[in-house]
């Protein structure tokens, strides 16, 4: 048994380096709905929730877990890296999955009702339960590092320029 925290044992890169593999890239868009509101307050990571029908559509292609990719909001041509938690919401007794996107950028306003567009580029890890909130926060910080590393690879970086993310242009 190692004394290292589990996060340090996870790889800093996931997926193929030179190729985005199916079912990615997966394009999703929808107007942001209200989640439970814990994301920003408790975790320190604001999350924007995609509508139920978008999660249902995504569930045809994606495994549950933590994913990464690019995001844009409300026809703004700026594109940001994102990490997304796609999982079963216990509140709905495993009938519905929710897609909750954390954009790696500090915004002053919230996005409720604004159109969120994402391109999911790959899978980072399965969802887990944690002994403490701090352990979850550590893991999310590590997810963000993995996402930034992975998105810097040319095949993944190129997705940032997809016209889907720049609808106003
Ligand atoms: C990148 C990322 C990874 C996450 N990983 C997990 C996880 O492994 N296990 C878990 O219980 N919650 C995880 N969460 C937290 C929840 O899925 C959710 O985002 C949080 O509870 C806020 O929900 P709310 O917006 O409905 O309030 C993760 C969130 C993010 C942004």
TrEMBL record:
It is an enzyme of class 2 (transferase). GO terms for cellular component: mitochondrial inner membrane. Gene3D superfamilies: Riboflavin kinase-like. It holds the Pfam family Flavokinase. Pathway: Cofactor biosynthesis; FMN biosynthesis; FMN from riboflavin (ATP route): step 1/1. The keyword Nucleotide-binding applies. It comes from the Eukaryota. Residues 21-152 form the Riboflavin kinase domain. GO terms for biological process: FMN biosynthetic process; riboflavin biosynthetic process. The keyword Transferase applies. One of its GO terms (molecular function) is riboflavin kinase activity. Its EC number is 2.7.1.26. SMART domains: Flavokinase. Keywords: ATP-binding, Flavoprotein, FMN, Kinase, Nucleotide-binding, Transferase. Belongs to the flavokinase family. Catalyzes the phosphorylation of riboflavin (vitamin B2) to form flavin mononucleotide (FMN) coenzyme. This is Riboflavin kinase.
């Amino acid at each position: 048994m190692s004394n290292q925290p589990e996060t340090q044992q996870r790889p800093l890169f996931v997926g193929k380096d030179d190729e985005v593999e199916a079912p990615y890239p997966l394009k999703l868009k929808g107007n942001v709905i209200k989640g439970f509101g814990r994301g920003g307050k408790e975790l320190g990571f604001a999350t924007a929730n995609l509508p139920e029908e978008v999660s249902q559509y995504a569930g045809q292609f994606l495994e549950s877990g933590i994913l990464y990719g690019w995001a844009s909001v409300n026809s703004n041509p700026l594109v940001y890296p994102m990490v997304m938690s796609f999982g079963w919401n216990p509140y709905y007794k495993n009938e519905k999955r929710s897609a909750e996107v954390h954009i790696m950028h500090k915004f002053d306003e919230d996005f409720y009702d604004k159109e969120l567009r994402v391109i999911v580029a790959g899978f980072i890890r399965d969802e887990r339960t944690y002994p403490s909130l701090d352990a979850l926060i550590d893991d999310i910080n590590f997810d963000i590092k993995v996402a930034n590393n992975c998105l810097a690879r040319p095949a993944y970086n190129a997705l940032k320029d997809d016209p889907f993310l720049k609808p106003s242009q």
